[in-house]
Amino acid sequence: MSGDLCIAPYYEDPVNFMEKEKLSPEMQALLDNDPVAFFLGLTKLREQGQDPVELGLIPGNPVTKKVKSADRWAKEQITGATAAATDWETNVKNPSRNPIEAALAANDKRVDRLKKSIDEKKWEKNLGKVTQADINAVVEKLGSSVFSNGVEARTAKINKRVSELQPLAQSVSDTIQAMSDKTDGDREKRLLTARKLMIEVGKKRAGA
């Protein structure tokens, strides 16, 4: 998620609407004072199976940006990933940077997750034995279908994850769109709020 905030790629139709219905004074005050609380409120309602639009809490303008349905979103991800199988094979065999050096450079991030392995130096020893030729040989042996088949095999998992993410993305979108964008200050506030909300989405996804 993370562009428009990271929501833009998920819109059904990224149109710019000229006018929009107004929030109630109470909801507008909440949005102005605490956009994160506004977002969390929309998210909680959707988790309870309630639609903020049908409840009259947020505008229902038909030209308001709408996040794609979970089914369409997941289907497009699967279709796109499957169609990219040939590109995946080409990119793996012709990396823009040395993958071994890149992995070594990320060692600090890996330490927390693989402390035992690092203490025993298993990662460095094993990785030092790998060459790009070894990688190419594996890719050629498996072929590009192993990638597309892997994606297709995870269809249920992708559908589940997207179903969880879609209502969060919609709540972020609703919150940002309800904020004023008339001045540079307004637009700056929208960008900062977008970042805060994406952090909140991450917390939700992590079960925090």
**Element order: H for helix, E for strand:** HHHHHHHHHHHH
Q: How many structural domains?
A: 2
Q: How confident overall, as mean pLDDT?
A: 82
Helix content: 55-70%
Low-confidence stretches: 1-20
Q: What integer value in Å does the Rg equal?
A: 22 Å
Enumerate how many helices there are, as a single number: 12
Could you give a short account of the major beta sheet?
none
The share of residues in extended strands comes to under 5%
Q: What distance separates the N and C termini?
A: 18 Å
- SS-derived structural category: mainly alpha
Overall 3D shape: elongated
Number of strand segments = 0
Blueprint (SSEs and pairs):
Blueprint: H1 25-33, H2 35-47, H3 70-83, H4 85-93, H5 99-105, H6 107-111, H7 115-119, H8 122-127, H9 132-142, H10 145-153, H11 155-178, H12 184-206
Helix pairs in contact: 1-2, 2-11, 2-12, 3-10, 3-11, 11-12
How is this structure best summarized?
65% of the residues lie in helices and 0% in strands. The chain is mostly helical and 208 residues long.
What does this structure look like?
- The chain is an all-alpha fold and 208 residues long.
- The protein has two domains: 105 residues, no CATH class; 86 residues.
- It is built from twelve helices and no strands.
- Helix 3 packs antiparallel against helix 10 and helix 11 runs antiparallel to helix 12.
- The protein is elongated and about 65 Å long.
- It starts with 24 loop residues before the first helix and ends with a helix.
- The N terminus is likely disordered.
